[in-house]
Write a structure and sequence with these properties.
alpha+beta; Gyrase A, domain 2; 2 domains; 4-stranded antiparallel beta sheet; two-stranded antiparallel sheet; 12 helices; 6 strands; 47% helix; elongated
């Protein structure tokens, strides 16, 4: 995995499985449920037992808790893929005006190491092989040089447009491709996070967005331990779509 990839929690609903249990309990209770309502000591296990086990499919109560991630240094293409998820998901993405600032800071003669701080080289290209549905396919060694040269050209073109030609950043960004690194903030409720993992942690998803899921996973596990344990056992990587 790329060492620059980062996922951190900005905010999360405290004690989310208790919130889920209270919402579930209101569905089946004549009493008025409040934050002070008593809950069983094993409410996390109860949530799994009554909502998820046996393919019960009662996902509604899982929509109440929310978690917000800061995602950093992934290529623009991963953000584009992630942003196709819109139900129960909210995004704020670093403007290309500010994404482009890191390109200007590369200077007029960036080294390969400097380029890779700003642009992402796909792991398949670096490793010289790609896993396809037809098996492992070799990638020619010169592919890495081609990618880095293209990134260098993009960086220099952007710099010239902004600094020499007076082109506004929002127009100069047209020369920057899908490989530029970009930061974003994304929020999920518990149900929408599982749906995202259903689609993006499966084996045939693009490698980098699977790595995004892998970096999100420990936070989900710490946040909703019983729900996450059930998910890991029954749904992770199986491409089963949550209702």
């Amino acid at each position: 995995m790329d060492p620059l990839f980062r996922v951190e929690v900005l905010s999360q609903t405290p004690d989310p499985e208790r919130v889920i249990w209270l919402a579930m309990h209101q569905d089946y209770s004549a009493e008025y449920v409040t934050a002070a309502s008593r809950t069983p000591t094993n409410y996390g296990e109860a949530v799994v037992r009554h909502l998820l086990e046996g393919d019960r499919g009662h996902y509604g109560p899982l929509e109440h808790p929310q978690i917000t991630f800061a995602v950093g240094y992934f290529p623009h293409v991963v953000m584009q893929q992630a942003r196709t998820h819109r139900i129960g998901v909210s995004f704020d993405v670093q403007s290309f005006r500010y994404t482009g600032q890191q390109v200007l800071e590369l200077g007029s003669d960036p080294s390969p190491d400097q380029l890779e701080q700003v642009f992402y080289v796909p792991a398949n290209i670096r490793e010289g092989k790609a896993l396809t549905r037809q098996g492992i396919r070799p990638i020619a060694p010169e592919a890495l040089g081609i990618v880095l040269e293209q990134y260098r050209r993009q960086a220099l073109a952007y710099r010239r447009l902004v600094e020499e030609c007076g082109v506004p950043p929002e127009d100069a960004r047209c020369v920057l491709g899908m490989g530029i690194r970009q930061h974003f903030v994304v929020s999920f409720n518990c149900r929408s996070l599982m749906h995202f993992l259903d689609l993006r942690a499966k084996a045939d998803a693009q490698r980098e967005i699977r790595q995004l899921c892998e970096l999100m996973w420990p936070h989900f596990e710490a946040w909703c331990p019983h729900v996450a344990a059930w998910y890991r056992k029954h749904r992770w990587g199986k491409a089963r779509l949550a209702p």
